Amino acid sequence: MTALAAKRRHPAAFAFLLLLALLVTGTAYAAFAPRPAQAATLGADQVVEGKKLFQANCSTCHGLNAEGKSLGDGTEAGPALAGVGASAVDFQMGTGRMPLAAPGIQAQRQQKILFTPEQISQVAAYIASLAPGPAVPTSSDYDPATGNAAKGGALFRVNCAMCHNFAGSGGALTRGKYAPSLMGVAPKDVYEAMVTGPQSMPVFNDTNIDPQGKRDIIAFLQTVHDSPTPGGMKLGALGPVSEGLFAWIFGLGILIGCAMWLGQKSA
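RESULT FIELD:
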């Protein structure tokens, strides 16, 4: 038996090879792992300022280091935010949903935005620095002019209509939650909602719906929003339920009223 063969059969050889493999794997991951795009773009100063804003305004629910926090009864006060990406921050804070004014079943869009675009970008940079996640999209990512409304309508009916209604008018969900109406929603907000999955909405990454498919859906929603209503009131475009209810209450009501008026006149 040679000296090399004896070393290979040494009891510590396997442990040494395992540690060496782990070291090589860790080094390779550190060298080639994707970096959070927004953090790299905005710079270290933005991340520092964003952390200060986060700890002052968001840490009550999400923890000092965005690790999440639970209440004493096991209820989640706020989820961990590592990996949600800058896009999630831009959507939640840019639509006024965060920070929450008060606990509720669902965060609602607010007209009054508490933070400036620069402050939102700083918080987004800090969250992006924690772990890779969806970056804030550029205008070319959600430009409806580059989308196909017909293809977008097919994608929307397959993936979105069961919650948001076939025309994007919204609908009720379980346990008091709801899918909001998409009429008049900015294309950027629609895109960010698809890639981040707010509330009960699933995440539609590029594997589920590719970037062109997302633009197609946005183009479809723009087309629906801009379409005229030659028949008059569209009743929220909620479908046959609202239309049937309108017919029963108003249509039949008018007919009954006319019948009673004619009966009294003939008497």
